[in-house]
Design a protein that fits this description.
DNA polymerase, domain 1; 5-stranded mixed beta barrel; 4-stranded antiparallel sheet; OB fold (Dihydrolipoamide Acetyltransferase, E2P); alpha+beta; Alpha-Beta Plaits
Length: 261
């Protein structure tokens, strides 16, 4: 990437030199431009020895806190980066690297002109998905014709064939036990009605919700999705539906969470 980062941006940096007053680091996403982390921006705690906090040869996520283009100066901070910022930025960085690799693979294995691939494939997919890797994931999940409306049937199939070979779609599983009870004479039927509250519900694309009888009064609920955020949302929706219905039927309901797998 050419140019300079903007203030407030998160960047990937490779620490090259550590001095008593601060650390120098290369911004890997900006053509090797150098930035500086003053000792006061290394940690939220007191820094007696900067080398206990920053070491040469390490890769970190930093926040840009100042840019002087005329001087080629980029001021960075490590202490203003949260753990969530690090995870989000590193994931974005990995996806960018994968996207680049997929694009280079397409160029190498196609008889099409580079400008054509840029205009007819990369540009529309970047606009729709944000990055090529997300587009390839979508193709792998949804089939050879899933991108036809964006890039045409020929390119849609090429992308799908590449995605099948290059991308493994992993899923996550979460869940727990629903405790459902009823003192009514037809309590079993009421519990069945409560469980059926999730029947036919569309929890979203690539999400499965399954309820299994264990032993009275426990019923196991499992949710499988592509990521934890999506799975958590579906789990809450499903358990709320069942428990609310159970209460409406004059019964009692609770939920015991299972640790993430």
């Amino acid at each position: 990437m050419s140019g300079f980062p903007v203030e407030g941006e998160l960047v990937i940096v490779n620490v090259t030199k550590v001095k008593p007053y601060g650390a120098f680091a290369i911004l890997s996403e900006y053509d090797g431009k150098e930035g500086f982390v003053h000792i006061s921006e290394v940690s939220t705690s007191w820094v007696k020895n900067i080398r206990n906090f920053v070491k040469p040869g390490t890769t970190r996520v930093a926040k840009v806190i100042g840019v002087d283009v005329s001087k080629g100066q980029i001021d960075l901070s490590l202490k203003r980066v949260s753990e969530g910022d690090v995870r989000k930025k590193m994931d974005s960085h990995r996806r960018a690297i994968r996207s680049k690799g997929l694009f280079e693979f397409m160029v190498k294995n196609s008889n099409k002109d580079l400008s054509e691939i840029q205009e007819k494939v990369k540009k529309p997919l970047d606009t729709e998905f944000g990055d090529l890797y997300s587009a390839f994931e979508y193709s792998a999940l949804n089939g050879a014709d899933s991108l036809s409306d964006l890039v045409g049937s020929e390119w849609s199939k090429i992308i799908f064939d590449t995605a099948e070979k290059s991308i493994t779609i992993s899923k996550v599983s979460i869940g727990g036990n629903l405790i459902l009870t009823s003192d009514a004479s037809d309590g079993v039927e009421r519990i069945k009605k409560a469980i059926s509250a999730v029947d036919g519900v569309d929890f979203g694309e690539d999400i499965s919700v399954e309820l299994t009888y264990i032993s009275a009064p426990k019923y196991k609920i499992d949710v499988v999705a592509l990521d934890y955020k999506t799975a958590e949302k579906a789990l809450k929706q499903a358990t709320d539906l069942v428990m609310n219905r159970m209460v409406e039927l004059k019964g009692a309901a609770s939920f015991e969470r299972r640790e993430k797998e």
